[in-house]
Amino acid sequence: MELVEFWQATSAGEGDSAVQPPVHHDLLSLTLHTVAGAAYGVPMTFLHREAAPDSLNGEEDLFSDGATPPTGFTLSFRQALAFVANNLIAHTIVSALPPWISRLKIPFVLQHRRAHTDFTRYLSALAATAGTSGRPTLLDLLVAGQDSEDDGKKLSREELMGNLFTFTLAGYETTAQTLYYALLMLALQPDTQRWVREGVDAALLDQPADPREWRYETVFPLLVRPLCLMVPLTLSSPASLR
């Protein structure tokens, strides 16, 4: 809903004559928001509410959704997550370079090293507060695995961070491309678009007006028609589309 409001605010013209700017970047942002919420319990928004720099000192403010980094950080959580996700190959290569490379002061290397440092610090802060968000997240499950002593096995800090990196970045752009492909196909087939919309409206008929109050276990099983779209999407990979 928030994304629709954002599109309405940024489109040119009104009504049937409205022209929507390219949405690929917005779908990447939507995927980023989904990862941040489901994996870490950090809410993100298209309608930014910038916090004052002086207020970014507490633990809760580390993840304030704005462009101003907290004290001691180069990037905000959104910026660090987006930078690493959007530059995955280059970031992986730079991260594998020996530490002494940073002494050469190469801007490209320094930029990636700073993003990596900030992102790792954010993940550490999230891991320290896991289980306190009210709803279980992927991070909560991984931290629970780290603390488990079943069969004498326990996740090390490096394994925990490695899993967080993998779950965060794997499939990030592919997911956005799949959403883009689905919207394109629906735009070209108005009858299917209406059929899916009717299914969504029926599923949400008795749900709260605020999407944040929807429960996965209640709503997801009702979304039968949108789930039908997953079958053709799995048969034709949209990963190369832009």
Explained architecture:
The chain is mostly helical and 242 residues long. Helix content is 56%, strand content 0%. The protein contains 12 helices and no strands. It has helices at 2-10, 24-40, 77-86, 88-95, 107-128, 138-147, 157-169, 172-188, 190-203, 216-219, 224-228, 230-235. The protein is globular and about 60 Å long. The protein starts with a helix and ends in a 7-residue tail after the last helix.
- Structural class, please? mainly alpha
- Approximate strand percentage: under 5%
**General form:** globular
DSSP helix count? 12
Q: How many strands, which pairing sense, and closed or not: the largest β-sheet?
A: none
Order of helices and strands: HHHHHHHHHHHH
C-alpha Rg, in Å?
20 Å
Q: How much helical structure, as a percent, in the residues?
A: 55-70%
Uncertain ranges = 49-60
How far apart lie the N and C ends?
A: 24 Å
Mean pLDDT equals 76
List descriptors.
single chain; mainly alpha; 242 residues; 0% strand
Secondary structure elements and pairings:
Layout lengths: L1 H9 L13 H17 L36 H10 L1 H8 L11 H22 L9 H10 L9 H13 L2 H17 L1 H14 L12 H4 L4 H5 L1 H6 L7
Helix pairs in contact: 2-8, 3-5, 4-5, 6-7
Short description:
The chain is an all-alpha fold. Helices cover 56% and strands 0% of the residues. The chain has helices spanning 2-10, 24-40, 77-86, 88-95, 107-128, 138-147, 157-169, 172-188, 190-203, 216-219, 224-228, 230-235.
